[in-house]
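re: ur question from yesterday

yeah so i grabbed the chain u mentioned. its 122 aa long if i counted rite. heres the sequnce exactly as i have it in my notes:
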Amino acid sequence: MNGSWTIETKTVQTSYAPFKDLDLTYTVQFVQDGNNLKGSGEKTTENGRDIAGKAHTPIKITGTINGNSIEASFTEEGSQRESHGEFHWKLKNGSGTGTFLSTAANSTGTSSLTPYTSSGVM
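ran it thru and got these structure tokens back, copy pasting raw so excuse formatting
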């Protein structure tokens, strides 16, 4: 898990209508120590469009790897407020798929984890 990864999320349910169907992409640098995982990075796209400046909100992730599962908590320093949440991924063929939940507008949805390349996927 050491190295750069891309996390993509799609909001399925939220208490704030403009967040519905929102696609976000983060680039994160992970370091694995045994079953423990730590990462930091930033948001890079919203709905497929590159973002700039303050929109590149930082994200920090800590989690554990158990077999082919990753359970992780995150903190994102948004432009208006800090939000917290969780990622739940199942690993297969070097990538992960799963879900997320966030305190940002009580959002939940799908999430993927892929090794980073310049095109965002490997």
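noticed a couple things. The CA atoms of residues 37 and 78 lie 22 Å apart. also DSSP finds no helices and nine strands in the chain.
anyway ttyl
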